[in-house]
Design brief:
N-(1-d-carboxylethyl)-l-norvaline Dehydrogenase, domain 2, 144 residues, globular, mainly alpha
Amino acid sequence: AGWRVELQENMPGMLWMKFAAIAGPAAVNAATNSVYEEMRTLPETRALIIAAMEETLSVGKASGAPIIDGTLERAINAMDNFPAQGRASLAKDFSEGHMVELEGITGILVRLGRETGTPTPVNNALYAILKPWANRIQASFQSL
């Protein structure tokens, strides 16, 4: 069928790399209501995203995932290749008032950080910033 398949020896590590490449950028994207190009090129937001990625990989490592050298760089490279004018589905859901997956992305990361004793101050802050908005969206669906 023409499908290209890439086998991974370190599937848990690869999944945590993908989680790092998605979770940090998605939360920052939602919190800033920007597009990828804008948040990637501003030094302040880029540093925030990279710090969130580092925390994600630290949680993965503390959870027992084999995080190998170069994983952070691969996550950053993945983010750098997101469409310039694109936005994360989490950000779109927030701005359009749809049910959001905050608990399944940033929320679970914060909880796993707590459970493993891994500090996640950046992700904690992003979660705290987005949680009231997520609650308002959820309440609007419950009132229907």
